[in-house]
Amino acid sequence: MIENLWGRILLIIYFVPVFTVGMVGNLWVILSVLRILHKTRSPVNYTFRHMAMYILSLSIADIAVLCMVPMLLSYFLDGHWRFGLIGCKIFFTVENINKLLSVAILTIMSFERFLAVSRPFYWLCCRIRRKRVSNALGVVLVLLFFSVLLCSPMIYYADLKPLELLYDDGSVESSTQTLCGSDLPDHVMSLFICYMFVLGFVLPLLFISLCYFFLIQHLRKTRSSFQECWPRGQGMFVTACTTKVVRSVLRVVGFHMICWGPFWLFVLIPIIEYFQLISRVPTALDNDFFRSLRMISSFLPYLNSAGNWVFYAAMNRELRDAVTVLGNCSRISTNFGSNQRQQKNGSISTMTSLILRPFIFRAINWKTRRMTTTTIAQSRYEDNNNNKKINRGEFNSGLSTTNDEMAMRDELL
């Protein structure tokens, strides 16, 4: 319970906008994704439906967490749990499952992004061959199952207990107020915190960082090929647009890690105390300032759930602008069916563009290499003709030559 008046005011000022903005934004994302899933029927659009399922699942998880905000706010302001044992179980279930499920979905999305950019044809063929979104749905259900399994100790021990008042003389008195908590045994608590920290923060952060490291390395390697295959200025545009996608997704992942990092840092303090790794840490943190920091760190995950949709909107706006311009150049690729026509009309969905553009980039690169062979040869021919030098093998038999040029070629041979 927060007894300080200013503390209560700040708590309301923080949670009310977080709850309102988060609920409205995530509902908008869910409705937008459901609309996309309903309208995308062409074979290629199954790839979009695949990624849209991950976005939909993440938004649902965020809304579930935000639904706990009124319960948490009432608990902090009143100091009494009013929602019974079932409400206490639900609160700990949603809180702890979100610690694993949300970051797991972000990890899968990062891996999908890496495959879509570095192995677009393999990635697309796998998605089209299935022709359904059950693959993504199955992955989400598996992640949900393991999240529930790993969080089961905290859910099992979640229970109501009376508030105990400790007086200066050492006496203890039970109060009529009820608290909601999960009193795991010390050895279970230490093990629970350790594997939750590793599986919910360390490994996802490492895996996501590796995915984007290799993705950036791939973009750097292919930058020169883009500049060779596109006219001057357009190759730089393609590279810049691809870099925007990477930065946008990195902002989403970085925002998640910034919100969860301080939380896990303070959660590790009981582990340090239990194993007596650093004897001075618990004593140094036992003051009002660090207790306030610890409380703030526990509020940051709610900000993450409320702010994810903002990053989706900003990212997709950049993608929409880039794909609209790229639609003018989509004529060189004939393998995209209705998606090519949607790009020309500038009506492609912002969510579906999240997947389309890396595939277009790679396809354009591959198609342009084949289709610009004659153009490059003709350009070299004109340059050599002006210099009165003709190199053998630069032209195919279909290129017309004059008698003087044939004689010059014979002399050079």
Automatic annotation (TrEMBL):
One GO molecular-function entry: G protein-coupled receptor activity
Top-level taxonomy: Eukaryota, Metazoa, Ecdysozoa, Nematoda, Chromadorea
Family of this protein: Belongs to the G-protein coupled receptor 1 family.
UniProt GO cellular component terms: neuron projection; plasma membrane
Domain of life where this protein originates: Eukaryota
Official protein name in the record: G-protein coupled receptors family 1 profile domain-containing protein
Keywords associated with the record: Cell membrane, G-protein coupled receptor, Membrane, Receptor, Transducer, Transmembrane, Transmembrane helix
SUPFAM superfamilies the UniProt entry points to: Family A G protein-coupled receptor-like (SSF81321)
Localization of this protein: Cell membrane
